[in-house]
Specification:
Blueprint lengths: L4 H5 L5 H10 L5 H15 L6 H8 L1 E4 L8 E4 L6 H13 L6 H11 L7 H13 L11 H15 L6 H7 L10 H13 L8 H14 L11 H11 L3 H7 L2 H4 L3 H5 L4 H15 L6 H7 L7 H10 L10 H9 L7 H17 L7 H13 L1 H13 L6 H13 L3 H11 L6 H12 L6 H14 L7 H13 L6 H12 L6 H10 L4
Antiparallel strand pairs: 1-2
């Protein structure tokens, strides 16, 4: 039914609202595209109202009879796919001030009539109801989510134990000396793999990944442990995990395939040959492909990493990426932050790092589709590590600039800009910074000061760089309102070093900045 949405339902909308519908149907970035369309329409017609758009979505439509569902009547909005509803609710949240409250509540009531609603749609509906002041005592999360949270809590600290979440995050006490080393490893594996903070930066994500690898170290042959592993156990217990990675070689810490499998449940192990068969298939995938990948929603972060390793995801050919990403994007509910970050790192990081020429169409499709759906994991698992590469080149910069322009919301662009503060700048990084500044993210005074300090410190190595000069010109023209007297003094010394033909233009732009 959804394949013929254009011909079946677009006739219910007028010319302007048809553009909105098409934008909302355009995938994970549909809400952002719809907002851009609406803002352009508003500029040309300030009196534009979305009342007719909401009314059209609420009108009753005949739902065709299927093998599992008799002929029924539903609001038009209920006949659209889940991705459209999610984009629609996000769009309404962004433009709620331009919509009549009663119309929005009517639309939310229509969405609430679905017999088997999507959990994310339900959460968005309830959040909008709260924003509009509608009385509602229902939680945003579903009963299944509540059950999983309770299970997670019990796994982290144990049911009925004192200390609660605070004890979990402050670290567990060392196990008693009577515990066997294998029992200690198993306990620590559970504790370490239970969570990854979704707001952690790239460095924290890397540290967590390292911990998971050490916690999964095997006991070969059931006999005496290697010296490196014994040392790892002792130092993990004493809280000095970082030293293990310095002293132990990668070969000593690499788990064997059989031991990796031990971390997976039986149905997870059963999915491995099915997924391998799909990845090697040369034909198109059907709905059963998505069903196979649902196993990822049952995995904790360590198990996702194990699956990626056993499936050799870093080595799959690029022509398989679009099919794989389509199946991953079709999963409901969406993947967790840590699962998405692990998959993105495994699938894409090595391929992007090794680019020596512009990315292929398949790789671009995969990167942009996953970034649109999972922007924060992409920032931490892909964009940040690529920026930290010493040998980042133009192919990487070109791909990252495309992500910045097409996939990232303003607050994620700001996050990427902050990542550049921790890297050594190169010509390729300069083009990325220029692209970020051109999108004009909202910089507060502290961030702008931090940026200018980094800019001034990097200036001596770019005295003849046109990219650096153009980036400076963008700062002085688009962010002139942020420049204080102290900034002006620092930037003046920076411009004195410039040896490009833009030097006079830069000095003139700085001179035009006045302070009241």
């Amino acid at each position: 039914m959804f394949l013929n949405l254009d011909s079946m339902f677009l006739s219910r909308f007028d010319g302007q609202t048809k553009l909105l519908v098409r934008s909302l149907l355009s995938g994970a970035s549909g809400s952002r595209r719809a907002l851009c369309v609406f803002q352009r329409q508003q500029r040309s017609n300030p009196q534009l109202s979305l009342h007719s758009f909401i009314q059209a979505l609420c009108q009753e439509e005949i739902c065709p009879e299927t093998a599992t569902q008799p002929l029924t009547v539903k609001p038009l909005v209920c006949l659209f796919p889940v991705s459209f509803k999610q984009n629609l609710l996000s769009f309404i949240h962004l433009v709620s001030s331009a919509l009549p409250r009663t119309s929005v509540l009517h639309l939310l009531e229509c969405l609430g009539r679905e017999p088997c609603p999507n959990p994310w749609v339900t959460a968005l509906v309830r959040q909008l109801e709260r924003d509009l002041g509608a009385p509602s005592e229902k939680p945003l999360y579903s009963p299944l989510c509540s059950q999983r949270l309770n299970t997670l809590s019990e796994r982290l600290v144990g049911a009925g134990r004192a200390g609660g979440w605070a004890e979990c995050f402050s670290g567990q006490k060392a196990a008693s000396a009577s515990q066997g080393a294998s029992g200690l490893l198993g306990t620590q594996r559970k504790r370490k793999s239970s969570f990854v903070a979704p707001d952690s930066d790239a460095e924290e994500t890397g540290q967590q990944s390292k911990r998971i690898k050490v916690d999964s170290s095997p006991v070969e042959g059931g006999g005496e442990r290697p010296a490196a592993e014994e040392r790892g156990v002792r130092e993990e217990t004493s809280g000095r995990l970082g030293d293990v990675h310095t002293e132990a070689s990668a070969e000593e810490l690499k788990p064997a395939a059989d031991d990796l499998c031990d971390t997976l449940s039986e149905h997870m192990k059963a999915s491995i040959p099915q997924i391998k068969e799909l990845l090697e298939s040369q034909t198109e995938w059907d709905q059963s492909a998505t069903d196979v990948f649902k196993v990822l929603n049952d995995c904790d972060p360590a198990q996702v990493e194990v699956l990626c390793s056993m499936l050799s995801l870093p080595d799959i050919p690029e022509q398989t990426l679009p099919k794989l990403c389509s199946s991953l994007l079709a999963l409901s509910p969406d993947l967790s932050y840590s699962a998405a970050a692990t998959l993105i790192k495994s699938l894409l990081l090595g391929k992007v790092r090794s680019l020596s020429e512009p990315a292929s169409r398949c790789l671009v499709t995969a990167v942009t589709s996953l970034c649109s759906r999972y922007p924060r994991p992409t920032c931490h698992a892909l964009i940040g590590p690529v920026l930290e590469e010493k040998n980042i080149g133009n192919p990487q910069a070109e791909l990252l600039n495309r992500l910045i322009g097409d996939c990232l919301e303003p607050h994620y662009r700001l996050l990427v800009l902050q990542m550049t503060f921790r890297t050594v700048w190169s010509e390729a990084v300069l083009s990325i910074i220029h692209s970020l500044l051109d999108s004009k993210p909202e910089l507060n005074e502290e961030l702008f000061t931090h940026f200018t300090e980094h800019l001034v410190s990097q200036a001596p190595q770019f005295t003849k760089s046109m990219k650096f000069a153009k980036m400076m010109l963008t700062v002085l023209t688009k962010y002139n309102g942020h420049v204080t007297a102290a900034h002006k003094h620092s930037l003046s010394g920076c411009l004195a070093l410039n040896e490009t033909f833009l030097k006079k233009s830069l000095q003139a732009a700085l001179k035009r900045i006045t302070h009241t």
